[in-house]
Request: fold
Amino acid sequence: MNSGSPHEEPLFRIEQLHKSFGDHEVLKGVSLSVGKGEVIAIVGASGSGKSTLLRCINVLEVPTSGRMFFGGREIDYLRLTQNRAGARELAELRASIGMVFQSYNLWPHRTVMENVTEAPVYVKGVSRTEAIDEAELLLDSIGLSDKRDEYPARLSGGQQQRVAIVRALAMRPRIMLFDEVTSALDPELVGEVLDLMTELARKDMTMLVVTHEMGFARHVSHRVIFVHEGVFAEEGPAREFFAAPKQPATRQFLSRILRDDLIERTDAS
Reply:
């Protein structure tokens, strides 16, 4: 799948992004340009800055410095987070940037249908009838239309995560961010979530995917970025990245990940 080539015009880019928490600098001046329809896998050890990168893109964290452009417009981080007008603009930005987390973050007191339709109705002003129609199509596409009136506690982890993805898709985002969305799942449930993400890639959804699933990174993504100690230590086309990593830190990381995967499969059998 990763042989396809995305459009040249960047949908999104960041320039020299820094993020510090107190004296600890987590991101040390990273830059990235993402084309429409491109799937980028972001890999690296825990604590390397991968999740912080996604949270800065979605303005869940305010970068310490750097610039971000989305759809040709520069995003003013401080203005978005300091006044009421900025808050409205921030809501619009987040409606265009869907994000799915490791934890499902579904509202436990609302049904599947209510979880999926709430944001389109109250954030985007979509009529409830239209939102329900769209939700029914989305739930049917992932085989969960029969769960529309269930509460999250009655769903498996894989089902909850697929509903979380559909909830983000109901906002019709222009880009999707996935932050280790399979890491909390039992091994037998990982595949159903990766299958949904693979289908989104086939439909040219622009995606940034923080993941430890090397099969997905190798076969679905166009590019892979290796984050190491707050910098992009290596990046390139997926096949080249896995076939001939250039940096010693990349080779060490891939060797450890593949060894751990082999041990897990051996233990499972």
Observations:
- The chain has ten helices and ten strands.
- Residues 3-7 have pLDDT under 50 and may be disordered.
- Residues 32 and 89 are 23 Å apart (CA to CA).
- The first strand starts at residue 10 and ends at 21.
